[in-house]
Amino acid sequence: MATESQPSGDRTDSISQRHRETAADVIPPNLKLYIGGDWVPSSAGETFETRDPTTGETLATVQAGTREDIDRAVEAAWTAYDETWSDYSAAERQRVLEEIAARVEENREAFARLETLDNGKPISEARIDMELVADHFRYFAGATRVNGGETIPSGDGQHVQTLREPYGVVGQIIPWNFPLLMAAWKLGPALAAGNCSVLKPAEETPLTVLKLMNEIDDVLPDGVVNVVTGFGPDAGEPLAKHPDIRKIAFTGSTEVGKQVMTQAAEHVHDITLELGGKSPLIIYPDADLEKAVATTITAIFYNTGECCSAGSRLFVHSDIKDEFVEALASTAEDLTVDDPLLEETTLGPKVTEEQAERTLEYIEEARDAGADFLAGGDVPDDEALAEGSFVSPTLIDDIDHDNRAVQEEIFGPVQEVFEWTDYDAMIELANDVDYGLAAGIITNDITKAYETAKDVEAGNVWINQYNAFPAGMPFGGYKQSGIGREVGYEALAEHYTQTKTINLALE
Ligand code: NAI
Ligand code: MG
Fold first, then answer.
1. Residue 315 CB–ligand 1 contact under 6 Å
2. Which among 73, 53, 55 has a CA at the least distance from the CA of 63?
3. Separation CA 169–CA 143 (nearest Å)
4. Where are any strands of DSSP class E within 7-166?
5. What is the mean pLDDT of residues 428-441?
6. At what angle do helices 289-301 and 321-333 cross, to 10 degrees?
7. How far apart are CA 418 and CA 426, in angstroms?
8. Torsion sign, CA atoms 299, 348, 351, 46
9. Of 205, 363, 429, 504, which one has the fewest beta carbons inside 10 Å?
10. In the chain, what are the domains?
11. Does ligand 1 have an atom closer than 6 angstroms to the CB of 64?
């Protein structure tokens, strides 16, 4: 799998050197908490380290924010809302969002490299993240101008009209798999709607959000966006529970999502949750083999499998199964698992050692149950990658659909394969998980594709493609995959504004 011909000791050194040099270039100068437009230490004086999952080395030391910091940040956000941001017109907010998009574009390569260092994703994929970040801010820049209410026909003597007003201050908790992109998904609609934000990045990957604030400090009025780095229970929970936020948006595990929902209940905050998934990818027998294999590879191995939408359960029709899985396994084994800063790398390390271990535990569980491994099932046999949290691309066959490895989100480069013949039985199995985030269908028969799209319990269905996320596409889950939608205009209108109805007597 490793492509370089250097001895592994030399490769280890060159990976370390490449990462240290890149870190020196792209880590931003200000790494403290960003509150009210100032860089401040955490009230408790505590810090923590964020690590490079490729080398295991420390990248940077950041602040461990606590309840007091969240209090300060929420207060700064309300001050900004009351004194400046609520006076900004839609056109003015549009210009701010456009400028944010421009700053991301100007610094795209540095943002991408920093994301690769902190998260471990291949540089080619980190660049795509940054393109999407900029495009997403630009989409919401435009959306500021169409965010309006309705006039409701209401009989004689009354004029009923709705306004869509911002909440004021919202809390936003984001994960580590697409650190800057998930921040953009949340900040875009919040700011477009006229809210101020207190945002908590994931403790595993705080750096690109901090870099964003370094780059846009002069673009946003002080306090419109406040960033408090720190751990979930210390900084996330006080944010979700804070009496003065009006809405909390969370992306992460279903387990913590349930806790956040309880926390939000204390003050009846509005809530959106974007949680885990265990999404089916359904292959019909008429599929073009080569294209279907490529789509399957994207579905499960993109971002090292660390996608909430990952197509982690493959349902392939029995007519083509043998041929299909043979081609799939050989393509999976040909992926370039290496230093994610290298252009040719297609699979990087998992975000942390802990996450790699979690993935390997699921693999062990499948192995113990007697499953068959079509590919992977272990860590790469490459000394140069030994310090990184790598897991080989893994395909599992002959596994019971009730196995924990099939039912639960693994969030790593692991897919389970099922063969189907009877359509109804296949759909029943495809829907037989607690999740309902996404699904993929591969067929040239448009009628079948459409029927299947309607039959799957999923918030997002891709046909003849997978993991495509253009700006404007509402995204979110059915069942335990979440509440509400992100990305599209629906996020702004339904989830970052509240409706005020004004009923005027005409007589
Ligand atoms: P997590 O749900 O603990 O972390 C996500 C965010 O929530 C982080 O910012 C974290 O600091 C915060 N958080 C943690 N505990 C909190 C609490 N009590 N109150 C408020 N905020 C809290 O996810 P984790 O532990 O990083 O990953 C575990 C699993 O979750 C993964 O293996 C994966 O299956 C799933 N996951 C799903 C994601 C998605 O995109 N849907 C993203 C990240 C993880
Ligand atoms: Mg990290």
1. no
2. 73
3. 19
4. 33-35, 38-40, 47-51, 58-63, 151-152, 158-166
5. 98
6. 50
7. 9
8. negative
9. 504
10. 9-275+483-500 (3.40.605.10), 280-470 (3.40.309.10)
11. no
Token pair listed for 246: 């009006």
pLDDT at 5: 60
**Is 200 a pocket residue for ligand 1 (Cβ < 6 Å)?**
yes
- Cβ–ligand 1 distance for 161 under 6 Å, the answer no
Report how far residue 17's alpha carbon sits from residue 90's, in angstroms, rounded to the nearest whole number. 47
The answer to whether 74 and 198 have CB atoms below 8 angstroms apart is: yes
Q: Which ligand is in closest contact with the Cα of 61? A: 2
How many angstroms does the Cα of residue 376 sit away from the middle of ligand 2? Answer: 25
The catalytically annotated residue of 115, 203, 237, 274 is 274
Can you give the pLDDT at residue 8? 76
Ligand 1 centroid vs 173 CA: distance in angstroms?
Answer: 9
Q: Which of 434, 407, 428, 429 is nearest to 418 (CA)?
A: 429
> Strand pairing of 280-283 and 482-483?
unpaired
Q: Which amino acid is at 82?
A: D
Choosing from 411, 434, 435, 467 the residue with most ligand 1 atoms within 8 A of its CB, the one to mutate for a pocket test is 411
Taking the CA atoms of residue 141, residue 181, residue 440 and residue 314 in that order, the dihedral angle to the nearest 10 degrees is 180
User: Is 274 in the active site?
Assistant: yes
How many angstroms separate the CA atoms of 355 and 34, rounded? Answer: 28
| pLDDT, tens digit, 9 for 90 and up, residues 477-499 | 999 999 999 999 999 999 999 99
- Residue that is written with structure tokens 């870190």 in the block: 23
pLDDT tens digits, residue range 107-162? 999 999 999 999 999 999 999 999 999 999 999 999 999 999 999 988 889 999 99
Helix (H) or strand (E) holding 258: helix 254-265
The 10s digit of each residue's pLDDT in 296-344 is: 999 999 999 999 999 999 999 999 999 999 999 999 999 999 999 999 9
